[in-house]
Amino acid sequence: MVFITNAKKLELGANQRDSGKQKKKKKFDWVTKEVKKKCKTKKKKKEKESENEDEDEDTETSIRLKTPRGTRDYHPWEQRLRNEMMDTIKQNFEKNGGQYIETPVMELKSIMMNKYGEEEKLIYELQRQDGTAAEELCLRYDLTVPLARYVAMNRKRIKSPFKAARIGCVLCLYVYIDIHVR
């Protein structure tokens, strides 16, 4: 008889332990339910986004927002740092007798080709929208040619030694050429 009661006690103890686990399980059930809900909503959002992307690809008016290859946007804080750095460089250059000049972004194609004829692939040519004949223009891909043109045009007015600098954007297609050195 004692043995039976001990067995019953053991059974009761096991049942109580199980019910304790169930209580803990019930305690955290709401957490698992919330996690499952969020997972389901995330899946639904992803499915909707992928459906929207598929629809966007189908329409002709969709635009993919990105910068052209080789370019980037500068955030205001980055631009402020760049400006400070450029101001420091300019001030030091001017302290040593340097001068800054400004040249146009576009140049005559004949001038650009005269300097670097073999580099024709680097040039972006400009054409008029109405198709009328005009001067052949191209965007500068280098700051040296416009600077040389400026010096050649103004050599009588320029005092020697002429320390000039130009800081600006250049627009070109980069073509990688294999160079074989002997």
UniProtKB/TrEMBL annotation:
Transmembrane segments: none annotated. Residues 50-60 have a biased composition (Acidic residues). Residues 1-74 are annotated as: Disordered. GO terms for cellular component: cytosol; mitochondrion. Gene3D superfamilies: Bira Bifunctional Protein, Domain 2. The keyword Ligase applies. Residues 70-163 form the Class II Histidinyl-tRNA synthetase (HisRS)-like catalytic core domain. GO terms for biological process: histidyl-tRNA aminoacylation; mitochondrial translation. GO terms for molecular function: histidine-tRNA ligase activity; RNA binding. The keyword Translocase does not apply. It comes from the Eukaryota. Keywords: Ligase. Residues 35-46 have a biased composition (Basic residues). PANTHER family: HISTIDINE--TRNA LIGASE, HISTIDYL-TRNA SYNTHETASE. This is Histidine-tRNA ligase. It comes from Reticulomyxa filosa.
